[in-house]
């Protein structure tokens, strides 16, 4: 069954042409662990977890690589706040552990490998030397920069060109550089001594790391590269420039990016002070509800986060559990028109909202069609990664309104008006009350 994604490089929905005889090479940019993961991180990795699961469901073997940026300005600053810049590795490990715990709670599969920048420095130095020798990079003091004008195709992912970069350059740009858009491959640093290199003590720049780790783990050309839309420029643009300048072949065949999460109509960002950590969110909401909340939105559309919508997602997720949590998983999918339409939605650019729209339109069918219920549960668990385990129930107040609905439903049952009884049960479920009928 064909899978289509919107390729950021071509700006078009394209069918993935992949060879099932070979592992699919999937690279997703990972975190810089200088703080606890936030809900934006959660969206990225849930998105690509579903994509991974869909590929595996279609019979592909996937080599999934997700890097860890364990040396960075933010990590150094955090270590300095604690009194010693050289302790950046301990800071990175602390927050990486927190990140993995959050991903586990969200039901995300572990990548095949998670290379770290600090384990690839020798390869990064060799890569930079190759760029210098090929005329694509130059040294200034202890720093090395990539020359964007040396690559005519620079800007093809983001649509930016060197002239727009020149016009948009900051006033305090480093005037030593040949072009304001030239970016650092190696950052000389004698104050906090890091690694030896042909250019002196220092450390890698941000962008070079992914080019090298992708090459070391997956080869010179990978199949699919993913991440958040905030990485399109400059990070992914610069990855392409470095890799294609050195190897003279495409860096990635397909590029896939998910949209932002907004808070109060503004892009969520730690720098803006409006981020919501996953740990704080999990203290209030079950992680599976958070995962379902993400999947109610197509991955390329922004999410305007609010707790009211999260509460509504919990109600809807409870309804799914009530209908599909008790069936037994199927070994093979039931192939019928509704099941196919649900799978078609997932296969065309991970349209999870359409999937759930079809599901809720036919949600009651599982009561009378066991095979259908088994098939849907299989997709929900194995492809969408939803556990369907009952959520912990908080003590709830039975209000006069709920009492009235319970009374009406009991009267409908006694009158054997099963359609009305079912409708009232669904209404109660939508309000957060699950009804367990006693057997006669």
Report on this model:
The chain is an alpha/beta fold and 440 residues long. It folds into three domains: 4-258, 3-Layer(aba) Sandwich (Rossmann fold); 263-383, Four Helix Bundle (Hemerythrin (Met), subunit A) (Up-down Bundle); 400-430. 43% of the residues lie in helices and 13% in strands. The chain is built from 15 helices and 13 strands. Strands 4-3-9-10 form a four-stranded parallel β-sheet. Helix 2 packs across helix 3 (88-105), helix 6 (206-218) crosses helix 7 (232-247) and helix 9 (287-295) packs across helix 10. The longest helix is centred in the N-terminal third of the chain and has 19 residues, at 39-57.
**The named CATH superfamily of the largest domain:** HUPs
Integer average pLDDT: 91
Percent range of helical residues: 40-55%
Binned strand content: 5-15%
**CATH level-two architecture of the largest domain:** 3-Layer(aba) Sandwich
What's the structural domain tally? 3
Number of distinct beta strands: 13
In the sheet with the most strands, the strands line up as: 4-3-9-10
Calculate Rg over CA atoms: 25 Å
Q: Helical stretch count? A: 15
């Amino acid at each position: 069954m064909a899978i289509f994604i919107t390729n950021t490089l071509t700006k078009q929905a394209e069918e993935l042409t992949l060879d099932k005889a070979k592992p699919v090479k999937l690279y997703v940019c990972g975190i810089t662990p200088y703080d606890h993961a936030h809900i934006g991180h959660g969206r990225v990795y849930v998105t690509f977890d579903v994509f991974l699961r869909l590929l595996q469901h279609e019979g592909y073997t996937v080599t999934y690589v997700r890097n860890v940026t364990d040396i960075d300005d933010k990590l150094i600053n955090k270590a300095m706040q604690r009194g010693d810049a050289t302790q950046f590795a301990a800071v990175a490990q602390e927050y990486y552990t927190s990140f993995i715990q959050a991903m586990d709670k969200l039901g995300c599969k572990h990548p095949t490998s998670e290379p770290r920048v600090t384990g690839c420095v020798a390869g990064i130095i060799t890569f930079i030397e190759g760029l210098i020798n090929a005329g694509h990079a130059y040294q200034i003091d202890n720093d090395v920069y990539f020359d964007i004008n040396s690559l005519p195709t620079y800007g093809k992912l983001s649509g930016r060109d060197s002239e727009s970069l020149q016009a948009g350059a900051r006033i305090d740009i480093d005037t030593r550089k040949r072009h304001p858009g030239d970016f650092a491959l190696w950052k000389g640093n004698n104050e906090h001594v890091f690694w030896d290199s042909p250019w002196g003590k220092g450390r890698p720049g941000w962008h070079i790391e992914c080019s090298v780790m992708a090459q070391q783990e997956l080869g010179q050309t990978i199949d699919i590269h993913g991440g958040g839309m905030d990485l399109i420029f400059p990070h992914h643009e610069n990855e392409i420039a470095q890799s294609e300048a050195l190897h003279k072949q495409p860096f990635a065949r397909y590029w896939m990016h998910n949209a932002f999460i907004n808070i109060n109509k503004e892009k969520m960002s730690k720098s803006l002070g409006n981020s919501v950590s996953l740990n704080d969110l999990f203290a209030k909401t079950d992680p599976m509800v958070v995962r379902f909340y993400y999947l109610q939105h197509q991955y390329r559309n922004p999410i305007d986060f609010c707790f009211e919508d999260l509460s509504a997602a919990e109600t809807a997720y409870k309804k799914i559990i009530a209908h599909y949590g008790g069936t037994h998983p199927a070994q093979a999918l039931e192939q019928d028109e509704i099941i196919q339409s649900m799978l078609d939605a997932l296969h065309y650019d991970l349209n999870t909202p359409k999937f759930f729209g079809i599901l809720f339109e036919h949600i009651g069918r599982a009561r009378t069609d066991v095979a259908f219920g088994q098939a849907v549960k299989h997709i929900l668990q194995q492809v969408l990664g939803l556990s369907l385990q009952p959520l912990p129930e908080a003590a709830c107040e039975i209000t006069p309104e709920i009492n009235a609905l319970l009374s009406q439903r009991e009267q409908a049952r006694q009158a054997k008006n099963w359609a009305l009884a079912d409708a009232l049960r669904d209404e109660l479920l939508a309000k957060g009350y699950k009804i367990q009928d006693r057997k006669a």
